[in-house]
Amino acid sequence: MDLTEYLILFAVVFAINLLPAFGPPTWSVIVLFGINSNLPLAGLVPVAALASSTGRYLLALGFRKFAGSLSEKTRANLAAARAAFERQKHGGLLALVFFAVSPLPSAQQFGAVGLAGVRILPFTLAFFAGRLVSYTFYAGSAQYLVAHTSLGEAFRDTLTSPISIAVQMAMLAALVALAKVDWVKMFGPADEGRRD
Q1: Which residues fall within 8 angstroms of residue 141, CB to CB, at 6 or more apart?
Q2: Where does the sequence pass through the membrane (predicted)?
Q3: How many CA atoms lie within 13 A of 172 on its CB side?
């Protein structure tokens, strides 16, 4: 096992997961490394899951910093959304489960978590757990994927598929809408509270 290969894998997956939209799917990078290296599945998956979770965590922190430059009214709206979310204990648990297994692009989900000021760490841990499962599935299915499609096609389809583009655009629009909705009117004002 070569530590350099693990570091390269970590760096590539980390960088992809810092992108707020239109990044290639991490599973394709795992498949690429699985085919072109001697790294075992037991090493590939946790390194990729850790790298993607770390990248997404920092992406959410970046959105949180960006939220600080928004208007006072928008910040108050986002604080009201956060307070409403945090009052719903069962809703929060369901959100974590959904976050772990969601087929939707995670970049915009982490953007929403960061903008709203919701605690990032629980979502990151749920994301990590979900990625351990999904990456194991994708890496374990690499033989089938290689036999039926090329990796170039997978990258190209992600970036040029009308459905993929439409989903990314819809998620970006939802992220903008999150900041524009009058959450104070819906849920009442909230105290500017804790951040993690």
Answers
A1: none
A2: 7-35, 41-63, 120-138, 159-179
A3: 10
Distances (CA, A) of 157 to 16, 25, 97, 146, 160: 16, 10, 28, 15, 5
What's the alpha-carbon Rg for the chain, to the nearest Å?
Answer: 18
C-alpha distance across the termini of the chain, in Å:
36
Q: Which position has the token pair 């970049």?
A: 107
Which DSSP string do the residues of 119-178 spell out, in sequence order? -HHHHHHHHHHHHHHHHHHHHHTHHHHHHHS-HHHHHHHHHH-HHHHHHHHHHHHHHHHH
Residues of the chain with pLDDT > 90: what percent?
20
Other CB atoms within 10 A of residue 41 CB: 14
Cα separation, 155 vs 87, whole angstroms: 40
